[in-house]
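Quiz preparation item.
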């Protein structure tokens, strides 16, 4: 298959991964952020805020996104009384999901109960692929710029974090697992730990299937006909810059945690093949990594997310 050959639209939409966008949840309290957060720095303006026990919800206006993306910030239970700084885990959702996925589907509060870790869960678009697309015909959808140039500095400015390499991890599911691997490679000094739960690690294999997933899913859901990597001809420089298997040295001296399923599935089969390729190349380079292949297909495995969180805390600077 060449880079300009299409994959069936049905397969592509299914392969974006994960559950449909989730319904609204009422807030326990509304108003000024108890963190004293301000939104007029780093190009962000807070347009909505609510507190759900130890969860802080925000919605921002940003020139990078033509609508107002949401972000959940889950704090340790003693955050407002301890005065300490904490490490941060950025947790990225999959396709056809949003920033509420891990709270509403995966019990992120239960998994982090009693743990000294801030978890930041941002919107990434229905099929945003954690990228700045080559083209968008309905306003900007620059998720990479929003996350890396605006959100991370805003979090560090408004919460007691360690704003350094050993203070940050990034993890994600499906499309978000790809985003985590991509951000770690492109922004080498940002994250000391990276995790991909059923996340693609190889863009060009199988005739460029993952690039086709990204292009076609985004074209029909997020970009009004635009594409992530260009169509019919790819922006090859962007593909190389984003492709984990072409950025191997960027993962050296980091904690790497990879999970995929063993079932044959339109999502998991190509993900597993790509992770195996990635793992093999890491091994050839002598780059340590932790990996698991478990029964089942394309979903977040609670025990693996718990193991990931515990591993992140063990690797990062302590609160």
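Solution:
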């Amino acid at each position: 298959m060449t880079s300009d050959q299409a994959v069936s639209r049905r397969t592509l939409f299914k392969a974006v991964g994960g559950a449909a966008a989730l319904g609204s949840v009422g807030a326990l309290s509304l108003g000024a952020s108890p963190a004293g957060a301000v939104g007029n720095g780093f190009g962000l303006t807070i347009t909505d805020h609510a507190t759900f026990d130890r969860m802080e919800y925000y919605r921002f206006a940003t020139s990078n996104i033509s609508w107002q993306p949401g972000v959940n910030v889950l704090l340790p239970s003693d955050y407002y009384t301890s005065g300490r700084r904490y490490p941060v885990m950025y947790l990225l959702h999959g396709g056809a999901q949003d920033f509420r996925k891990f709270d509403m589907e995966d019990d992120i509060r239960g998994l982090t109960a009693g743990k000294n870790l801030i978890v930041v869960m941002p919107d990434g678009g229905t099929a945003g692929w954690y990228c700045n697309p080559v083209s968008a015909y309905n306003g900007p959808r620059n998720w990479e710029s929003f996350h890396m140039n605006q959100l991370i500095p805003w979090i560090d400015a408004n919460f007691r974090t360690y704003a350094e390499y050993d203070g940050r991890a990034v993890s994600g599911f499906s499309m978000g697992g790809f985003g985590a691997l991509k951000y770690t490679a492109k922004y080498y000094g940002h994250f000391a730990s990276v995790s991909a739960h059923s996340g693609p690690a190889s863009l060009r294999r199988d005739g460029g299937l993952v690039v086709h997933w990204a292009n076609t899913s985004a074209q029909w859901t997020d970009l009004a006909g635009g594409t992530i990597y260009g169509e019919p001809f790819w922006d090859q420089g962007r593909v190389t810059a984003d492709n984990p298997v072409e950025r191997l040295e960027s993962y050296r001296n980091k904690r790497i945690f990879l999970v995929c399923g063993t079932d044959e599935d339109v999502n998991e089969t190509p993900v597993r093949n790509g992770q195996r390729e990635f793992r093999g190349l890491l091994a050839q380079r002598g780059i340590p990594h932790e990996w698991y292949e478990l029964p089942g297909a394309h979903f977040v495995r609670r025990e693996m997310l718990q193991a990931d969180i515990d591993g992140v805390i063990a690797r990062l600077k302590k609160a």
